[in-house]
Amino acid sequence: MSVQEDRIAAADRLTDVLARVVGTATHPSGLVTVTASAVGSLKHVRIQPAALNQGADAVGRLVVETARLAVDAAVQTSYNELAKSLGDSMAMAIEDFAGPSPFARKAEAEPEPPQAAPPPVPQPPRPHTPPAQAQRPAPPWAGQQTSAPRSRPAPPPEDDDDDDFFADPFRGQRR
After folding, report:
1. What kind of fold does domain 22-109 have according to CATH?
2. In this structure, are residues 82 and 89 in contact, taking their beta carbons and an 8 Å threshold?
3. pTM of the full predicted structure?
4. CB–CB of 165/171 below 8 Å?
5. What pLDDT, in 10s, does the model give residues 11-24?
6. Measured between alpha carbons, how far is residue 115 from residues 10, 111, 118, 135 in Å?
7. Domain ranges in the chain?
8. Spans of biased composition, class Acidic residues (predicted)?
């Protein structure tokens, strides 16, 4: 078998592998699980009955968010298959051309989430006292004099250029 035939056979195998690659993701709430291909076709959607209590719009958002996660997982798996078949350097070159994998983009774009603040300490209730009637200061625009209305800018001067010169391109050239 020649080198060319080996490459064609490897490309065919890689095409078959990439066509079968799917990613599965479960929404963080656990209410929806989606399996999708790297090109975005949904293979399987599973919705827990508890999700239906949230209404149609909420279920739609859950499915779309989870489908995006499943497609990202399938794309990442595709990159991994490319690296196994073509080698890391070729997969990195393809990644440079096509863009980083979804998980690499997320790692670059999303900083570490901030630590959750501790819950506030409950304060004992205070007795209600009516607020003192304090006078509010006047807003900054109160009491300002309005200026006279501005006059409009002068219109541009009329065009005194003789544009009709171009009406007859043969002026002065006829015999």
Report:
1. Ybab; Chain: A; (3.30.1310)
2. no
3. 0.54
4. yes
5. 788 888 888 899 99
6. 48, 12, 9, 42
7. 22-109
8. 157-166
